[in-house]
Every structure is written in structure tokens, then in C-alpha cells.
Amino acid sequence: MPTQKIAHMNEICIDQIGHRLHLPAEIRTIVSTVPSQTEWLFDMGLGERVVGVTKFCIHPLEACKSKMQIGGTKQLKLDLIHQLNPDLIIANKEENTSSDIEALQQRHAVWTSDIVSLNDSYDMMIRLGSLLQCKEGAEGMVSDIKAGFSAIPQRRPLRALYLIWNDPWMAAGTSTFIHSMMEAAGYSNVTDQLTDSRYPIVSVQDVLELAPEVILLSSEPFPFDHRHQKQFEAQFPTSRIQLVDGEIFSWYGSRMKRAPAYFNQLHNIEFQ
Predict the structure, then answer these.
(1) How many C-beta neighbours within 10 Å does residue 175 have?
(2) Where are the beta strands (DSSP E) in the chain?
(3) What 3-state class would DSSP assign to 106?
(4) pLDDT at residue 230 tops 60
């Protein structure tokens, strides 16, 4: 049987989807259902409080291996989470299913992020930092990330198509965090011409009509590799085909610190 929660509660907290939740006076145990937010927790020195992570939480690898795996982001093992009975669950509107989030909200305090822009990510870090008594460190991390992005040299934006999936090809649309990272990196997302603003499916004809200067093949969620790169080079000889690190483009949180140097590296390749 799960243990009883601490009786004394803080004031009601509101997360990024507008959900109101009560939190215990001291948050001692955390389950994270989002890989990027798991990494942020460890980087903020909160790893000892983390008791459960998903199978996709791989940073830091050894530390995550020592925690209970509570399924995949889209297929959470609710029974295991109930057994852990954490003081706080940190979830995400897009990466987790609404049914899982709603089920967990019935029994636990669930703080859900909703991240489409860089500012959403900064807000997530600062608000969680405040909840978890590490606000100063969170604000410092956000400040460092902002400084890194502001130092990216301004170049002519390259018209780019960012693919996240193969067969069918799925692209990152304009209402995604990836789009915001593309803009920060100096790309102009060609999917602004498509009606689906999230993850549009594109055909060979669509790509030809969109005429991207660069096609970015992500390492996740589908692991594009050099074989796919050669295929795209043959099909779209007027576009530069580039394999890219999907974690850099899609992980919100502390991994964003690595983005400016990586984006500069990509542009150095593309402008050769």
C-alpha cells in the first residue's frame, strides 16, 4: 500500500497547462516522465530526489539506470508510478498522453509543462526551480542559455526542412519547439507554407515544391543515418542534406546550453 502523503500542504501551484495542484511542504521524491526534464533535474543537483524515469531518459546514463523505469513517454506504467507514490510528477503536454496525465492527476501532484518556444522552456526551468528550492541555480542556467543564443552570429536564414520521421516523412511544423530552435539557429522553416502547423506529412512532390536549401535529418525520434542521407541526396540534388542531433533541436532544458556551439558548427558546414 502507498504511504500517506505529508499532511501539510503549500499553497496551490499552477503549471503550464493551467492545472492547479497541491504540493507537500517538502518535495522529497520526484518522477520525471520527460527525458529532457530528467536531465535538467540532475543538472540542477536534484538527482537524489528522482525515483522514477522513462526508458528514454538517458542523460545522465548511469544515474538514470539506477532509477525505476516507469515505461515510455507515451506508455507510462501507471501501476509502478502509483507504487512509488512520488511527491511530484513532472510531465509534458506533448510528450505524454492526456489520458495518462489525467489518470495521474487523480492520485498525485502532476506539474505539466507545455513548451513551444524558447521562452516556454525558460519559464519551465525558473518555475520548477522555484518549486524545488533551486531558483537561483535555475535562473543562472537560463541566463547562461540566453547569453549563448544571443552570441550566435547573424547570417542569412537558410530555408530548411526538418524531418523527424521516415515512411511517411514527417516534418517539424511551425507550432513546435523544434521550429523555435530552428529560428534560433538561423533557419527559415519552409513548412510555414503548409496547413498542418505541428508535424505535417510531406511527399516527394511537397519537398520539391517547398524547395528547401537544407534538409535536416534528425537523429530522433526516427534515427536517420548515412543511408538515408544518400537517398535524399539522390532525390533532392539541389538541397544540402545534413544529419543533425535531434536532442539539441528538441530537448528543452539544460541541453540547450550546448545548442549555440552546435548551431555554429552546422552553419560552418553549410556555408562551405
Answers:
(1) 14
(2) 13-14, 20-21, 30-32, 50-53, 68-69, 88-92, 110-113, 158-165, 169-171, 187-189, 201-202, 214-218, 240-244
(3) coil
(4) yes
Q: Measuring CA to CA, which residue among 207, 236, 209, 221 is closest to residue 166?
A: 221
Q: Give the chain's radius of gyration (CA, Å).
A: 20
pLDDT band at 62 (very low <50, low <70, confident <90, very high): very high
Contact 33, 64 (CB under 8 A): no
Half-sphere exposure (Cβ direction) of 110: Cα atoms closer than 13 Å: 25
Q: Please give the DSSP secondary-structure letter assigned to residue 34.
A: -
Tell me the three cell numbers of residue 69: 523505469
The pLDDT of residue 10 is 57
**Residue found under cell 521550429:** 179
- Cα–Cα distance for residue pair 52/158, rounded to 1 Å: 41
Question: Which are the contacts of 214, defined by CB distance < 8 A and separation ≥ 6?
Answer: 158, 159, 160, 161, 187, 239, 240, 241, 242, 270
Q: Is the CB of residue 191 less than 8 Å from the CB of residue 171?
A: yes
Domains of the chain: 13-148 (3.40.50.1980), 158-270 (3.40.50.1980)
Which stretches of 114-156 are DSSP H helices? 118-131, 135-150
Compare 271 and 150 and report the one with higher pLDDT. Answer: 150
